[in-house]
Amino acid sequence: MYRCVNCGAGMRFDIASQQLHCDYCDASMAVADHPDERVASEEDMFDVTVFCCPQCGGELMSTENAATDFCSYCGASVILEGRIGKEKSPDLVIPFLKTKEECQEIYKKKIHSAIFLPKEFKDPDHIDKIRGIYLPYWVYDVKQQGDVSLTGTRETSKYTEYLKMDCHIDNDYDGVTRDASSAFDDRISDFIAPFNTKSMRPFTPAYLAGFFADISDVSGDVYNESVKNETNKRTEKQIDSQYPGASINYPPDESAAFGTEITSMKSAMFPVWFLSWRRDDRVAYAVINGETGKICTDLPVDKKKYYLGSVLLAIPIFLLLSFLPTIRATTLVTVSSILSVGTMLIYAVNSRTVYRREEHLDDLGYQAKLAEEREGEAGSAPVPVEHAEAKKKVKSDAVKEIVPSVIVTIIALLVRFLIKPVSDIPYYACAIAVLLCSCYVFTVLIKKYNVFATRPLPEFHNRKGGENYE
Ligand SMILES: [Zn+2]
Ligand SMILES: [Zn+2]
Q: What are 397-454's pLDDT values in tens digits?
């Protein structure tokens, strides 16, 4: 803790002034001027209190030991258990630039027009629980140097141009970042990116005073391939922009061809504001980039509000339709079938997205942690594992939820285009059946959307952070 030189109370890092501030005697001082500062910056380790959530096992560290009464990971209102320890200092830090009040305004603006949100989202007591957390990141510098021969073609209106290019590549990409915590979904960190790595400065615990920090538990090597690929793609873009309209054949092993090397890998802490909302066994996050104010929120739909809204919307549509010239029965079948196929397509896309996210299939940091637990080894980029059980459940759900609709739609189309009854009644029956099925698929879709807009409760009990604690 940084003690005030005037009164001895704990100081905190004040965002507005970017200085240490004492709330008791109103003293301010630059981070570098504090007497403890020199001591801290020479040590590789610094003192922390690690707070652990008894419900989910999530850990947050802080330089203070004041009691905290809610968990930012799972949204539980519980007293977090604190223990004293030491953490390895990261190399770099970006201090908070956006204040709590500014971020609360950004959040309020964002949810303002989301009319189907559960009402707690707008509750001031809830919004007050937004918490400043430093997230661990890896920062890479990448160099590319080498000569490469490329071929390509360019179509003009009269002929095809064959291109042969000898390129000399000499590129520096500084400050490519990856999130270093398995607790934090890569999707959120990608969304609130980028952080301006130019505003990074050497880490000192003073920047942590009054905030929390997540613990780094993903080794930086996990991202080597992904970082190299990112810079290779950026180089491709550069080359492409020099030959507009050309399609260039890039070699399969670009890292070798471009001479891509990671020249430096540093640990850093980046600031985010974090708010979590919990209902039953689901949690929703609002995360705001503490430097730029970019926001990423989960926006679940309150079912009651949604149904009420749909009924209110259905009434004018129904009135409008009844004023239209009578629609022919056959057209009705065709239109409702198209609608049905549409909802089924949306269903298929959504099931896949929800499944991939629930299983964290696209989260490299999470998968690396899993791979480490499986084999006890870390390092190379992990191959995501799909659970046979989860996959089976997606399939059996699909059978229950969508097959009836498929069958009814096929029957309706057969009636419409093959059997072609003379009477209108079979057409109306088909159209109504198809529409009812679509309604059902739509209800399932809202349920799926809510799974998509929220997350399963996190579980960190097997997380291996804390090797450094005494
Ligand atoms: Zn003071
Ligand atoms: Zn928790």
A: 888 888 888 999 999 999 988 888 888 889 888 888 888 888 888 788 777 777 777 8
CA of 3 to the centre of ligand 1 (A): 8
Amino acid 321: pLDDT: 65
Mean pLDDT of 226-237: 94
Q: 404: helix, coil or strand?
A: helix
21 CA distance to ligand 1 centroid (A)? 8
CA 305 / ligand 2 centre spacing (Å): 28
How is the chain split into domains, by residue range? Answer: 131-297, 303-456
Distance CA 168, CA 249 (A): 16
| Nearest residue to 92 (alpha-carbon basis) of 245, 216, 247, 2 | 216
Chain length of the chain: 470
Task: Judge whether 269 and 92 are in contact, CB under 8 Å.
Answer: yes
Q: Give residue 78 CA to ligand 2 midpoint distance, Å.
A: 8
CB neighbour burial string for 70-88, b if at least 16 within 10 angstroms, e if fewer: bbbbbbbeeebebeeeebe
Residues 158-180 pLDDT 10s: 888 898 989 899 999 999 999 88
- Which amino acid belongs to residue 205? P
Q: What is the pTM of this model?
A: 0.76
Kindly state the tokens that stand for 188: 């959120």
Could you tell me the distance, in angstroms and rounded to a whole number, from the CA of residue 73 to the centre of ligand 2? 5
Q: Rounded to the nearest whole angstrom, what is the distance from the C-alpha of residue 57 to the centroid of ligand 2?
A: 6
Cα–Cα distance measured from residue 214 to residue 232, given in angstroms and rounded to the nearest whole number: 30
Q: How far apart are CA 388 and CA 391, in angstroms?
A: 5
Which residue in the block uniquely carries the two structure tokens 């089976």? 392
